[in-house]
Inverse folding.
């Protein structure tokens, strides 16, 4: 029997679950856009970074309290996402998928550069009213910011999940994702739903930016959390909200465990690539992910 | 009344597909549009519903009017709000949505929640099998059930005019009978106007009040359905009957007469 330090494992595990829930929130941004418009937004991480900069800027430059800064960041990201959809992405509707991928990829780099120019290269903070004293829950010791972050993330995932599954607008969005032409024939204004999906992704990014920015500090490295979202998406399935949560938690746990056990053996750095190994393995076995929709084929 | 006045449709800016089509679909009547593959029947329907533009087509001349109101400049989703809905050929259900969600999506132009619920109940009353399958993914329904669903979904918008494209395609005769029975009942009870495109001319002329025949982007023949059924050209080329009304054997047809061209 392997003699594992169980308490250590439990702490790593709990940590992974919390951080994973916060990954899930960012992954939700991808899911929303992919579900509604069939486009993959490779600038999702930069969206989060940009939102973080907006919140940090509002706090430090204008001196707003944290919650006004957070609201400003949400509002700013809605406007930003709307504008982006209108100016850059709408002309690309109907073009090959590659065009959209390249456009969002390029946009990511532009955002990173512009943010550094506008807000400076230093790390800024978002002072969230969360104490730094660790919280003890049974045998676990957890940072409160992660508890808050995971709580907010799961709450929003729940709200968006309900919205997609039950509300009239959510059903229409899924109909658009299923077939744009048929949706149009049913009286659904497809373009309006594209814009709505981007705006919702903007809201999610803003929340992610405030939470992650509050935890890690805001600089252009914050965009890298966006990269973590790819294994989350592939694991969970590109178009499933439940999948985003499960995928996020799996990635969080894998990352946390590899940081705890593998890093000391090899001198660190494994947590940055182990989720990708998992992603590649999943792609080989089950390309549509755990909860991704399989194509329904008639035979 | 739905009226097409001399419309011309051009795809990609250069390909002329409809060359001056005029037709009327009278209120509370079933009007059928017959013709061979590629004659322009589906294009005609898309010109009415505004969906041409999603395929780089455009109405370049003429007008489409519903009770005197122009439809041909409206985006597709506004045409639905005016009361004209198209049912695509090939049973295009939202595969990943459940049956009931398909119906909810079909009612998108309805603001009133209670009306949506009434609509769903009415569709289930017309097609009871859909009620049994209400929470199943529409992609897993049988062909007949999917056809019932797309028709039911179109009715959810509470339309005045339904454009039906090949509802009988690939379905068993029993299922076709059920679907056509419902269409006839909707016409009789709710005064629904139907423009029906069909390959199966016998079926179409049986249910329709009035008919048009298209060839090569033009209307070449029109008349009351009863008259078209008796027309000797229609009999020979669409219904497969000879002059005596008996089922014809193609072996007896002279080769050069098999394909009729009204315009030459």
């Amino acid at each position: 029997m392997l003699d594992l330090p169980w308490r250590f494992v439990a702490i790593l595990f709990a940590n992974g679950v919390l951080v994973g829930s916060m990954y899930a929130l960012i992954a939700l941004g991808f899911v929303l856009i992919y579900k509604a418009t069939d486009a993959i937004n490779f600038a999702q991480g930069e969206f989060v970074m940009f939102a973080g900069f907006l919140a940090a800027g509002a706090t430090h430059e204008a001196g707003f309290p944290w919650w006004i800064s957070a609201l400003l960041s949400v509002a700013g990201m809605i406007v930003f996402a709307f504008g982006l959809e209108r100016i850059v992405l709408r002309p690309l509707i109907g073009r090959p998928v590659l065009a959209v991928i390249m456009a969002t990829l390029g946009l990511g780099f532009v955002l990173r550069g512009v943010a550094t120019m506008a807000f400076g290269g230093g790390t800024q903070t978002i002072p969230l009213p969360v104490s730094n004293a660790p919280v003890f829950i049974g045998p676990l010791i957890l940072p409160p910011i992660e508890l808050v972050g995971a709580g907010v993330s799961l709450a929003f995932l729940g709200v968006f999940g309900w919205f997609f599954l039950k509300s009239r607008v959510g059903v229409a969005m899924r109909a658009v994702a299923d077939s744009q032409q048929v949706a149009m024939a049913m009286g659904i204004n497809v373009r309006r739903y594209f814009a709505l999906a981007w705006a919702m992704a903007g809201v999610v990014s803003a929340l992610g930016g405030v939470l992650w920015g509050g935890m890690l500090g805001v600089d252009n490295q914050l965009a890298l959390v966006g990269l973590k979202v790819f294994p989350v998406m592939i694991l969970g399935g590109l178009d499933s909200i439940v999948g985003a949560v499960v995928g996020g938690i799996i990635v969080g746990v894998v990352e946390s465990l590899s940081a705890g056990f593998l890093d000391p053996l090899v001198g660190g750095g494994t947590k940055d690539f182990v989720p990708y190994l998992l992603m590649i393995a999943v792609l080989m076995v089950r390309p549509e992910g755990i909860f991704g929709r399989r194509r329904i084929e008639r035979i | 009344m739905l009226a097409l006045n001399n419309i011309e449709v051009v795809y990609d800016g250069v390909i002329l597909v409809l060359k001056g089509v005029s037709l009327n679909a009278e209120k509370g009547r079933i009007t059928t549009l017959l013709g061979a593959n590629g004659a322009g029947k589906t294009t005609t329907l898309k010109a009415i519903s505004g969906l041409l533009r999603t395929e780089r087509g455009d109405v370049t001349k003429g007008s489409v009017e519903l009770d005197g109101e122009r439809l041909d400049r409206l985006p597709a989703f506004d045409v639905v709000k005016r009361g004209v809905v198209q049912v695509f050929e090939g049973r295009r259900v939202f595969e990943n949505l459940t049956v009931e969600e398909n119906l909810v999506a079909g009612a998108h132009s309805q603001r009133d929640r209670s009306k949506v619920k009434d609509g769903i109940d009415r569709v289930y009353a017309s097609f009871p099998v859909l009620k049994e399958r209400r929470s199943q993914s529409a992609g897993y329904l049988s062909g007949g059930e999917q056809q019932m669903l797309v028709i039911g979904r179109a009715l959810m918008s509470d339309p005045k005019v339904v454009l039906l494209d090949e509802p009988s395609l690939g379905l068993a005769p029993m299922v076709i009978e059920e679907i056509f029975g419902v269409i006839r009942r909707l016409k009789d009870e709710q005064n629904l106007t139907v423009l029906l495109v069909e390959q199966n001319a016998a079926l179409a002329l049986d249910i329709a009040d009035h008919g048009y025949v298209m060839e090569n982007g033009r209307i070449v023949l029109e008349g009351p359905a009863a008259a078209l059924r008796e027309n000797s050209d229609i009999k020979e080329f669409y219904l497969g009957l000879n002059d005596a009304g008996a089922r014809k054997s193609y072996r007896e047809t002279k080769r050069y007469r098999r394909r009729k061209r009204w315009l030459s």
Notes: Chain A touches chain B through 21 residues (CB under 8 Å). Chain A has a mean pLDDT of 87.
